[in-house]
Specification:
- With 372 residues, the chain is α/β, with parallel strands linked by helices.
- The protein has a single domain, classed as Alpha/Beta hydrolase fold, catalytic domain (Rossmann fold).
- Helix 7 links the parallel strand 9 and strand 10.
- The relative contact order is 0.16.
């Protein structure tokens, strides 16, 4: 019956753009993988990543020189990398972070079919790549989940005790709760974020529009209330499900949050002493405190990269961006492989009636704002 649930979940929640908004091409001179219709940037890598479920997903990694945080972005529904590409570039620049975005199985040019458990394998593959290929560490990674992307984001965050932070953008309490005001979690529900959010130990920022017609504002509000380490939420008055990036407050508040979590690693580490293995992990981050006592090296390099914000982010006016230093690399580390008991267990599945088809459109936004 497991296949019944997978089929139900696919019909219930997943709307990959058809046809995909982009193609992958290989540059004849360099052999590099490129996203069609976008010019090659020296600071952007296009990757194919294998997952533990046998699929191959497409990911984009954007470098920012001297960045101290890496954002792992799980996008919303009815979108793929081709539609998110320019936003990824903009976020990396304005937030001064490295950023990895990826397509779920069955989205864009990723292979396989979309399902709840495939998205869990997808985000794990992206996370593994960050650690093994780019030297990112758990303490420096911020997970960002938009709408349906809040599902894989919280599943992974609940299993990583030393994450720097989590951002939830128009998140869902669970798939079923988007359509019906149920009071409990059912076996056939998917993305049970309401049950996982209390397990997240790092600071959490929740962003939601008060006029969201797809995922009601109450979803974001309730998830924020259940957070262990709350950060000041951003409730965008009049904001809908797919336009929050257009509000000037969106970027300002997100930037403020990232600066805050970058400046307080020692406080969060001491607050989580009881977590298994945390004392050992803290030793690896103590170098920040040592350096700050003397020359404050961690802060000064960031000041040297400061520059006037020439782009009006909320108007999405894109201009040419300086070529970034592609030689900036960090030490490599091994992937943490332990999985906690929050993984869903499979039970015998029942079939679901056709009324879920009627509710498909309400699970996530169908029209992605085109930028440019």
């Amino acid at each position: 019956m497991g296949g019944v649930t997978s089929s139900m979940a696919a019909k219930f929640a997943f709307f990959p753009p058809s046809p995909p908004s982009y193609k992958l091409i290989t540059d004849g001179a360099t052999g590099l993988l490129l996203v069609d219709h976008f010019p090659h940037r020296e600071n952007v890598d296009v990757l194919r990543l294998p997952t533990r479920r046998g699929n191959e997903i497409v990911a984009v990694y954007v470098r920012y020189p001297m960045a101290t945080s890496t954002l792992l972005y799980s996008h919303g529904n009815a979108a793929d990398i081709g539609q998110m590409y320019e936003l990824f570039i903009e976020l990396s620049i304005h937030l001064r972070v490295n950023l990895m975005g990826y397509d779920y199985s069955g989205y864009g040019q990723s292979t396989g079919k979309p399902s709840e458990h495939s998205t869990y394998a997808d985000i794990e593959a992206a996370y593994k790549c960050l650690e093994e290929n780019y030297g990112a560490r758990q303490e420096n990674i911020i997970l960002y989940g938009q709408s349906v992307g809040s599902g894989p984001t919280l599943d992974l965050a609940a299993r990583l005790p030393r994450l720097r932070a989590v951002v939830l953008h128009s998140p869902i309490l669970s798939g079923l709760r988007v359509m019906y005001p149920v009071k409990r979690s059912y076996w056939f529900d998917i993305y049970k974020n309401i049950d996982k959010i209390p397990l997240v130990k790092c600071p959490v920022l929740v962003i939601h529009g008060t006029s969201d017609e797809v995922v009601d504002f109450s979803h974001g509000k309730q998830l924020w209330e259940l957070c262990k380490e709350k950060y000041e939420p951003l409730w965008l008055k009049g904001g809908n499900h797919c336009d929050l990036e257009l509000f000037p407050e969106y970027l300002r508040h997100l930037k403020k949050f990232i600066i805050s979590v970058e400046k307080s690693p020692s406080r969060r580490s001491s607050a989580r002493k009881s977590v298994d293995g945390m004392e050992q992990a803290r030793k690896s981050t103590d170098r920040y405190d040592v350096s700050r006592k003397s020359t404050d090296r961690r802060e000064k390099p960031r000041k040297s990269t400061d520059r006037p914000e020439k782009l009006k982010f909320h108007e999405y006016k894109f201009t040419k961006i300086e070529k970034l230093d592609s030689k900036f690399k960090l030490p490599f580390e091994q992937l943490e492989r332990s999985r906690r008991s929050v993984e869903y267990y499979e039970k015998p599945r029942m079939s679901i009636d056709h009324q879920l088809e009627k509710g498909r459109k309400s699970v996530d936004w169908l029209d992605r704002i085109r930028v440019g």
